[in-house]
Hints:
This protein has 15 helices and eleven strands. The chain has 405 residues and is α+β, with helices and mostly antiparallel strands. The protein folds into three domains: 63 residues, Molybdopterin biosynthesis moea protein, domain 2; 236 residues, Hypothetical protein af1432 (Orthogonal Bundle), CATH 1.10.3210; 75 residues, no CATH class. A hairpin with a 4-residue loop joins strand 7 and strand 8. It is globular. The two termini are 38 Å apart. The relative contact order is 0.08.
Amino acid sequence: xxxxxxxxxxxxxxxxxxxxxxxxxxxxxxxxxxxxxxxxxxxxxxxxxxxxxxxxxxxxxxxxxxxxxxxxxxxxxxxxxxxxxxxxxxxxxxxxxxxxxxxxxxxxxxxxxxxxxxxxxxxxxxxxxxxxxxxxxxxxxxxxxxxxxxxxxxxxxxxxxxxxxxxxxxxxxxxxxxxxxxxxxxxxxxxxxxxxxxxxxxxxxxxxxxxxxxxxxxxxxxxxxxxxxxxxxxxxxxxxxxxxxxxxxxxxxxxxxxxxxxxxxxxxxxxxxxxxxxxxxxxxxxxxxxxxxxxxxxxxxxxxxxxxxxxxxxxxxxxxxxxxxxxxxxxxxxxxxxxxxxxxxxxxxxxxxxxxxxxxxxxxxxxxxxxxxxxxxxxxxxxxxxxxxxxxxxxxxxxxxxxxx
Length: 405
């Protein structure tokens, strides 16, 4: 154990301290090293998991003898950007497991509903809690995996992606941990009402007839009916299910609510839902690039979507979200694999093609921000985003580590 780490009793753990790795009695990592205790909910979670003692890093954060930080102050290495640099890759394997388990849970629940049976909320609660934990350790890992799309299981994949996106955006807006859990549950269940929509309509490859769209528009209300009586599902979670298709100008459904009557979590869900839908392959159209999807959503800011939420969502994902296929001024091309907050125009890019358009035998990772600072030139700036399919690139395989060059 590092000499800068000190073991303390769980009763001594306070806001402002930095944790080393914390495991429960089953060997599951609850918090990874360099996690900042930023709110009391994190401490309560450890107590619920029967953790009796932890190691803290007394160099990066408070010690038991240190005074609490003044409101608004930030100590060395407390910035989110510095923590991302240290633990993104460490979190990625755990994030993959969290997403995989959530997909299994979503499929089981929706298949059960499709068969007309009552479902158990426990697996969804567990998945939502795992999503919250991963996001609090490092949000970028799970967000990056949202670009891995399931071609044949859109409904399950979409539900999990929306659960991740709404939870991560809510976390960036300083929602408390309990609120994040409810938000995640709502995201995972937001489309359960579609299990009462006939497959012929749900998977129709063309434009809906008015009567077909009328049936589709009932799925949020069906969702609320399906989850009624489930006491574990909070009011916030129910708002996600019911309001994710409402629009600020009253053009949404099922109740044509206007902005002042839509909850904030409903506004968040609306943006997350449409973004993931647009960036996914559907039976009636190919997936849009992240930039095209964000541009369309931004056009609807203040009319269909909350401008404040859209702006926060864009800052949260980045101008070139993870999974974007981009060309640099140098004419090299690659995939955005990480984004440092505050460096939205200079992400980390995995270069796949050289300046002459030749495929590299081994991809090379560029930190555009560092390269721009070091070389003081424009060559390492992004020129534009491109459609990866034109270059026969499966972005998901690279993000999941399955690509073979």
